[in-house]
Amino acid sequence: MTKQTKAVQSDDVFFPTIDTNVENSQLIINFDDVSEDGFEPLPVGTYDATIGGMELKKSKAGNPMMSITFNVQHEDYKNRKLFTHFVLNNDIALGRLKRFLLNVFPDAELSNLDLNELCAGGTGLGRACTLKVTQRPYDGRMSNDVKEVLPPQDLGIL
Questions:
Q1: d(Cα 135, Cα 28) in Å, to the nearest integer?
Q2: Assign residue 10 a region: left if phi > 0, alpha if psi is -120 to 50, beta otherwise?
Q3: Residues 89 and 136 grouped into a single domain
Q4: Which of 40, 76, 88, 114 has the highest CB neighbour count under 10 A?
Q5: Nearest CA among 14, 12, 17 for reference residue 32
Q6: How far apart are CA 41 and CA 89, in angstroms?
Q7: Does residue 111 lie within any of the structural domains?
Q8: Which of 46, 6, 43 is CA-nearest to residue 24?
Q9: What is the pTM of this model?
Q10: Integer angstrom CA distances of residue 24 from 5, 9, 18, 129
Q11: Residues 65, 119: one domain?
Q12: Per-residue confidence in pLDDT tens, the chain, 158 aa
């Protein structure tokens, strides 16, 4: 007996309509409306955002790193995501991470903070913040760079 192929719909621009054949584990994607260029970088500025993901992983050089995904909360940039990374092997990066934590997690106890628990526990998901964003060249094209993560402008959405 053959299972029906089902269509998976998503409003997220990162995931176009995808047809999957569950029985054969096939993944068929219609690339007709998919651009190879991706998004243009956001203009330099300050943006309200929420945390969409936090994970610990290794950098390209093999160092421990905390990666944060932000969901931009600006009407003109719906479904846009920005990213920042904290490589945890030097005092400068640890200082940046501490500023991030103080600004976005003012209720967190920073003495002996368990980053695994913070990331895996999901307590940061949806937490509001404000991003200072610039642009810089990356892999031959302009890309956004999150220069600073600040407390949310509207403190009522912590």
A1: 34
A2: beta
A3: yes
A4: 88
A5: 17
A6: 29
A7: yes
A8: 6
A9: 0.75
A10: 10, 20, 15, 43
A11: yes
A12: 444 444 444 444 454 555 555 555 667 888 887 777 777 899 999 999 999 999 999 999 999 999 999 999 999 998 899 999 999 999 999 999 999 999 999 999 999 899 999 999 888 999 999 999 999 998 888 999 999 999 998 655 44
Same domain, 9 and 80: no
The Cα–Cα gap between 155 and 132 comes to: 17
Cβ neighbour number for residue 47 with a 10 Å cutoff: 21
Question: Does one domain contain both 27 and 53?
Answer: no
List the domain range (segments joined by +) for residue 17.
Answer: 1-34
pLDDT of residue 32: 85
Total number of residues shown for the chain: 158
DSSP H helical ranges for 12-154: 91-104, 115-120
